[in-house]
Amino acid sequence: MENLYNYTKAALQEKLVTAGFKPFNARQVYEWLYKKKVTDFDKMSNLSNRLRDYLKNTMVLPELKLFTRQEAKDGTVKYLFALEDDALIEAVLMRHAYGKSLCVTTQVGCNIGCSFCASGLKKKDRDLTTAEMVQQLLSVETLEDIKVSHVVLMGTGEPFDNYDNCMAFIDVINDPHGLEIGARHITVSTSGIVPKIYDFASRDKQVNLAISLHAHDNTTRTRLMPINKVYPIEELLKSIQHYIDKTNRRVTFEYLLLGGINDTEEDADKLAKKLKGINCYVNLIPYNPVNEFDYKASPIKTQHAFYKRLINHNIQATLRQEKGADIDAACGQLRVKKES
Ligand code: SAH
Ligand code: SF4
Hints:
The protein is of the alpha/beta class.
């Protein structure tokens, strides 16, 4: 049996046509799954008996098991879900003025091992399937009885280390006959896996790309993110320029403000110089402390000074408002904590 949530509409259509059904049947099935959220094949009333039997005999529609749900003072909700093999993953729902966004986990653990990130404390056990990412979204919509408007691939894991499943996930949730999350409302964040940035540039979707930069020089960046040894800043920026040329889209650079490490006004000047001429904006992220590490957040004054300095250099920037810190749901704090 296969998990039907793994199928993009195109893949489902191919499968159904090969089995002797009509191309439009894929659209009908999609509408049942994602518009009406029906999981019982017998209730899919406009499908022929033969198609219903085919689906019943070949496909399953499992649900994620909800382990815990924690709500922060600001309304942010963190979910701990159990997968079929009992692996535990987290997803975070954030409520904004512009809508509701879900931060989705892409891997069980993460192999990139950034020296500041709680998620990287646990080596990757496995990639999530497309279905397991789709199910995070469906589960949250059903549990809260809401429509999620924005999706960010910023939970535990490196999306470009699970590229194919993440791209299929984007196709599934973006499909007009499915959940219909607009491509511009979807953001993929990467630590900078350069070959995949080239691959991503050749896709025609308007999905947002965010790059975790965190330093303007290789020595500091390698200390923070060992992946920088493999893909140093120059190569990274070259791939990003290629992406911008190809797609005409603006990229986001995420820059963590770490006290005494990368947060001086001189750092801001150097960062601005590196990014000059690149169609981008910089998302400054106040560091969320993690017990195991010595890093500290930059003082608020320093954060503002850094921000102003970038603006003075004509670099567009925002200082991110953290959400859900009181339940360890903020960026980089995701890790599975379970009382046993
Ligand atoms: N692996 C991807 C996406 C998940 S991490 C990536 O690294 O881009 C999402 C974002 O959270 C990244 O920018 C990451 O650097 C940042 N982050 C990690 N730990 C953090 C922490 N403790 N405080 C604030 N942001 C953190
Ligand atoms: Fe992995 Fe991203 Fe955390 Fe680095 S910051 S360890 S890439 S999840």
